[in-house]
Amino acid sequence: MAIDLFDRAGRSPRRTATVFTAVTCTALTLLATSCARGEDDVASEQPSGDTEAQAQVLDDAAGSDETCNIEQFGMEGFDLSEMKVGFSQSEAESNPFRITETASIEDEAEKRGIELITANAQSEFSQQISDVQGLMSQGAELLIIAPLNSDGWEPVLAEAERKQVPIVTIDRQINGTPCEDYVTFIGSDFVEQGRRAADQMIEALDGEGKVAILLGTPGNNVTTERTKGFKDRVAEKAPDIELVFEQTGEFTREGGQSVTEQLIQSEPDIDGVYAENDEMGIGAVTALRGAGKEPGDVKIVTIDGTETAVQNIIDGWIYAVIESNPRFGPLAFDAHEAFGKGEDVPVELIISDREYTAENAEEELPNAY
Ligand code: AHR
Higher model confidence: residue 236 or residue 30? Predict the structure, then answer.
């Protein structure tokens, strides 16, 4: 079936993930085959453990209209199945987001019979730069990079250009020129995630109270954009919410706990905590519990969608979780495959995110990771 999976013509307004499953089936080339088959067949083809409901779904109303193809990039076409692919993971795999992301890339490579070599920078940016250079020296002909930082990639980009190694970045952006430095970015709309987190906080607090922000690590677009979306929405919709404290918890559970312990000292009557990922939010729960708080005393809103965070909604500690889906394998390989075949690939592929609240947490828990 000759369908351009990355054809953006006729994009429709933003819809929910459920509706987008159907839209994606018509809009995405390489997934089209699966869409034509029964649900059971599709589910059985997901990376191990992933169901159709858990898979990433493109929000075809979001992102840039700009596209990139191999001719513009100045390369010859290639057959993905014959290529050696390098995957660079940024952070240590203590966070379920990272565990799930790496598993998704590895499972998809295995499913397609593609040779994959991997490296994990353990949250050290200089290590990630040498990791990616190492992947290229080991013969990686295509790269999938989950960047730790957004800036500072010049040495890698120059070498990739020299060696003609196309890059797909996932979950965070590399600051560079699309279709020159990299082919495409696949990830969420992080400003929108921040706005949706603010909407949940405003609802939880009835529009008034003191709120703290546990920031992610500095130096990447995810932290900047999640912060911007949250602050802008609070300023716009809830002038009686006061943002009284912000500090980085480095996207880790321990960081979230220790920053919240400090918060409790300086703001013992805090009403809400916005944690820019689940791990920090779970750390905040530990700190609040240790300070004698009960579930629901402090409204916590987080981002990611880990099983532990969703279970904390059921247990009453977390008010809501905005999803950030790390199952990038299928789309990352689809993008490289389409690019190699000479198709136009959008330079941004934005995925849609569900959200978890007290209303749906029990039912949706199986979709968490
Ligand atoms: O870049 C994505 C973010 O990085 C995830 O939300 C967070 O858990 C991770 O550390």
Answer: 236
Q: 232 Cβ partners below 8 Å, 6+ apart?
A: 191, 194, 195, 198
Instruction: Measure 277 CA to ligand 1 centroid, in angstroms.
Output: 6
82 burial level (CB within 10 Å; 0-12, 13-18, 19+): exposed
- For residue 251, the one-letter residue type is F
Q: Is the CB of 252 under 6 A from ligand 1?
A: no
Q: For residue 22, what pLDDT band results from cuts at 50, 70 and 90?
A: very low
Tokens 């120059």 appear where? 158
Angle, in degrees to the nearest 10, between helices 221-237 and 190-204: 40
Beta bridge partners of 142: 85
Strand partners of residue 320 = 301, 357
Is ligand 1 within 6 A of the CB of residue 78?
Answer: no
Burial class (CB in 10 A: 0-12, 13-18, 19+), 253: buried
pLDDT in tens, 332-365: 999 999 999 999 999 999 999 999 999 999 999 9
For range 142-153, the mean pLDDT: 98
Tokens of 244: 């009284």
The rounded distance, in Å, linking the Cα atoms of 104 and 109 is 9
Question: How far apart (Å, rounded) are the C-alpha atoms in residues 30 and 275?
Answer: 36
Q: What average pLDDT does the chain have?
A: 89
Ranges 34-43, 194-203, 241-250, 307-316: which has the least confidence: 34-43
Q: Is 223 in the pocket of ligand 1 (CB under 6 A)?
A: no
Q: Residue 281 Cα, ligand 1 centroid: separation in angstroms? A: 12
Question: What confidence score (pLDDT) does residue 28 get?
Answer: 41
Whole-number Å distance between alpha carbons of 256 and 253: 5
Give DSSP secondary structure letters for 27-73: H-TTTHHHHTS-HHHHHHHSSTT--GGGS--B-TTSS-S-EE-HHHH
The tokens of 101 are what?
A: 């992301």
* CA–centroid distance, residue 37 to ligand 1 (Å): 33
Ligand 1, from 122, 171, 252: best to mutate by most atoms within 8 Å of Cβ? 171
Quick one: which atom of ligand 1 is closest to the CA of 252? 10
